[in-house]
Design brief:
Pfam families: SBP_bac_3 (PF00497). The chain is α/β, with parallel strands linked by helices. It has two domains: about 120 residues, D-Maltodextrin-Binding Protein, domain 2 (3-Layer(aba) Sandwich), CATH 3.40.190; about 100 residues, D-Maltodextrin-Binding Protein, domain 2 (3-Layer(aba) Sandwich), CATH 3.40.190.10. It is built from eight helices and ten strands. The chain is globular, with a radius of gyration of 21 Å. About 5% of the residues have low confidence.
């Protein structure tokens, strides 16, 4: 009898645990079009739409804050309910987060002015130039770790202007393949790729306190999005984002 009662209590406890709703998540990101950007009062973009769909399929309540990158990243490190996207997964960052993804991919490209000639055939060749970075992001950390002296900016979109003003020689940019972002910003024919120095994937990176079961559920939702074509549809939704209106 006692065994039956104990078994019933354990079964009830398990059912209650399974029925508990997922915690509300605080999601942070930066302005990095077309991955994340503000459209009126709403945050949109490829990464944002991917994350919103993951949350919907996982049954997770959430809010999204658009912040400077260092604040967005620090929030996910310090808040037990927080995740940050679109985050490059590096060996240094690996132990600090639980990872959902990848939700996108990009190339790290040294960009330069089209009216200048650059003899850059390897990353080491770029040491002869002033390289502009985005303070605190993965490219900035990557170059610093390799001994580069960089010129960091608090906002990545300052770097194209610094290039045009000759304040830096090269900009360490992260650009989605076939992206028209620079065209939309008015740099067509003014800035050109000089050297691709890395190809990366980006993720939703969650605080280590986010439950493993929830992380697995979110990764499962993303897998389903890949299988049923939703992820591809989201990416292609922004194919014409950078095309100026006619």
């Amino acid at each position: 009898m006692k065994t039956t009662v104990l078994a019933a209590l354990l079964a009830g406890a398990c059912a209650l645990a399974q029925a508990e709703p997922a915690p509300r998540l605080y999601l942070t990101t930066e302005t990095s079009a077309p991955y994340s950007m503000r459209d009126g009062d709403r945050v949109t973009g490829i990464g944002t739409d991917m994350v919103r769909e993951i949350m919907a399929r996982s049954g997770v309540a959430y809010s999204i804050d658009l912040l400077p990158w260092k604040r967005a990243y620090t929030a996910a490190l310090e808040r037990k309910d927080a995740c940050v996207y679109s985050t490059t997964r590096t060996p240094e960052r690996e132990p600090h987060f639980k990872w959902i993804g990848p939700i996108g991919e990009a190339e790290w490209v040294l960009m330069g002015r089209a009216d200048r000639h650059f003899a850059v055939h390897s990353l080491d060749d770029a040491r002869a130039y002033r390289v502009g970075t985005y303070n605190g992001d993965a490219r900035d950390q990557f170059l610093r770790a390799r001994g580069f002296t960089v010129d960091p900016a608090p906002n990545d979109m300052i770097n194209p202007r610094k290039l045009m003003m000759d304040r830096i020689d090269l900009w360490a940019a992260s650009i989605r393949r076939d992206s028209l972002t620079l065209d939309r910003l008015g740099y067509t024919g003014k800035l050109v790729p000089v050297f691709v120095f890395n190809r990366i994937r980006v993720y939703l990176a969650c605080n280590r306190a986010v439950p493993d079961a929830l992380v697995a559920r979110m990764n499962g939702a993303l897998d389903a999005m890949e299988r049923d074509g939703t992820a591809r549809t989201i990416v292609h939704k922004y194919d014409d984002w950078g095309v100026p209106p006619k």
